[in-house]
């Protein structure tokens, strides 16, 4: 079976990380995987150690009308979905689309054709799957995955020294406030000198967010770093105040690291977090502040929630994700398939170096 993955994103965020994880986890079973990506795609570099065929393209698809040896096209983001739809119109190669965001799709002719002709639609969460069901009867949920990382990873000494005895509240995500909602955290933490806030990630709103945090000596912007894991290990509380979210794979990483989590009650996040059991869900800024206070002042609560969170993360491994996609591929081709034990062959490259590193 030859799978042609399509990801035309320019950067390397959650969707690209998940594409990498899937290709690696499938590799022992599907070594003939291929990837269509942009010429300067970080994803191409991330996968350079695997002997898979990559087809880098610029901004034109003209040279891509030549047929490629593929049994299935797997589109991992919106531009890739359109590419797969065009390719299918020429060569009738079946395609599936993984949709990762919970933005409403307009019910227009373009979307009805693109999503309706797909062999299968995959959503990361219940809320995405519900929307996809209006376009295609063949749809299913396959959540994102985390990397196999150790909860005993060494915390960042610089952050620990800077924080001292103060509670460390951490966030990992692209600095795009209309999506990730970092301004909500900044406004709250500025009024709590007994806490520190560590923001890991880069993005278009950094200057604006730094201006909002001006004068506060308990807020630090780390920016882009390859050492995301040590920062995550340093956090006492992981805060994820997104304004919308398809699922939130970074939450799964925090769960695996046994972190107490506060997150927005939006999108697919409630698929991961059950309020009061393995984390806290919030709707308003006042609820966010109250949840942070509860966790900061109650170590026993942090331990209880973080222990349950770590157990939850065991249901979201790359191996499990790959098994579900492999079954999906076989179903599309009409081939009987028994679930493979992908875990025992999982490529070791997907260790601690592949954790989310948002730009």
From TrEMBL:
Keywords, comma-separated and alphabetical: Glycosyltransferase, Transferase
GO molecular function: phosphatidylinositol alpha-mannosyltransferase activity
Pfam families per UniProt: Glycos_transf_1
Residue stretches making up the Glycosyl transferase family domain: 164-311
EC number: 2.4.1.345
Record-linked InterPro entries: Glyco_trans_1
Gene3D superfamilies attached to this UniProt entry: Glycogen Phosphorylase B
Record protein name field: GDP-mannose-dependent alpha-(1-6)-phosphatidylinositol monomannoside mannosyltransferase
Organism for this UniProt entry: Suttonella ornithocola
Lineage: Bacteria, Pseudomonadati, Pseudomonadota, Gammaproteobacteria, Cardiobacteriales
Gene: pimB
């Amino acid at each position: 079976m030859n799978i042609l993955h399509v990801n035309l994103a320019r950067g390397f965020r959650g969707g690209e990380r998940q594409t990498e994880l899937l290709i690696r986890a499938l590799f022992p079973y599907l070594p003939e995987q291929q990837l269509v990506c942009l010429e300067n795609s970080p994803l191409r570099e991330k996968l350079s150690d695997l002997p898979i065929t990559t087809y880098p393209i610029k901004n034109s698809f003209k040279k891509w009308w030549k047929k490629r040896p593929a049994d299935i096209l797997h589109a991992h983001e919106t531009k890739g979905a359109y590419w797969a739809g065009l390719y299918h119109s020429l060569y009738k190669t079946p395609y599936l689309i993984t949709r990762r965001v919970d933005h409403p799709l307009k019910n227009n002719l373009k979307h009805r054709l693109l999503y309706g002709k797909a062999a299968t639609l995959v959503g990361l969460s219940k809320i995405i799957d519900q929307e996809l069901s209006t376009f295609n009867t063949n749809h299913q949920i396959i959540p994102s995955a985390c990397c196999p990382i150790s909860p005993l990873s060494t915390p960042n000494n610089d952050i620990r020294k800077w924080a001292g005895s103060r509670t460390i509240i951490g966030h990992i995500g692209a600095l795009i406030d209309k999506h990730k909602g970092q301004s909500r955290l900044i406004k709250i933490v500025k009024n709590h000198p007994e806490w520190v806030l560590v923001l890991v990630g880069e993005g278009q709103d950094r200057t604006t967010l730094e201006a909002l945090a001006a004068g506060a000596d308990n807020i630090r912007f780390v920016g882009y770093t390859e050492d995301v894991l040590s920062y995550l290990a340093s956090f006492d509380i992981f805060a994820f105040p997104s304004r919308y979210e398809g699922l939130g794979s970074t939450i799964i990483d925090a769960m695996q690291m046994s972190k107490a989590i506060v997150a927005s009650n939006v999108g697919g996040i409630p698929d991961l977090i059950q309020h009061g059991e393995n984390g806290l869900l919030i709707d308003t800024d006042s609820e966010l502040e109250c949840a942070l206070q509860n966790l900061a002042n109650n170590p026993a609560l942090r331990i209880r929630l973080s222990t349950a969170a770590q157990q939850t993360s065991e249901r979201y491994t790359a191996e499990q994700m790959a098994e579900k996609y492999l079954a999906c591929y076989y179903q599309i081709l009409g081939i009987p398939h028994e679930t493979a034990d992908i875990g025992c062959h999982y490529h070791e490259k997907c260790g601690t170096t592949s954790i989310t590193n948002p730009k």
